[in-house]
Give the backbone structure.
Amino acid sequence: MGEVQEFELEEIMSGREDSCLWVTLGFRSPARAEDVLHVVSATSYDQQDSDLGYDTIYLERYDQALSCYGGATSIRVLPDAVELDLTTDGQQSLGFTGALRFVNCDGVEDYREAIEVFSQMSATRCGRSVSVSGTRGAV
């Protein structure tokens, strides 16, 4: 995984919309006291989306200027952590310097619900980089 930036998860939100599944990770970073990372998986796509690379996970930090499609080669959801292996483009687009590891997730309210959403993501083409393991929400 190389260099890993570790953050303590402070809050998590997740949901299901008609067109997507999403999880928002809230944490404190050197850049911001209230930082976020949005993880979004479309539930449908067309050929144009696929041609443009939009049939992958969309990641966005606290501002749309810090966002990208396909910025993570893998997103692992564990009982107490979420790990993202970022591509070079993902690191540059999101303003990180390596892989990400969010820890102490099991102590955050609504983590179980987020695991369920991550599990649903992993079953979609756009969410193929997501894996859930060692949790009751695993697929």
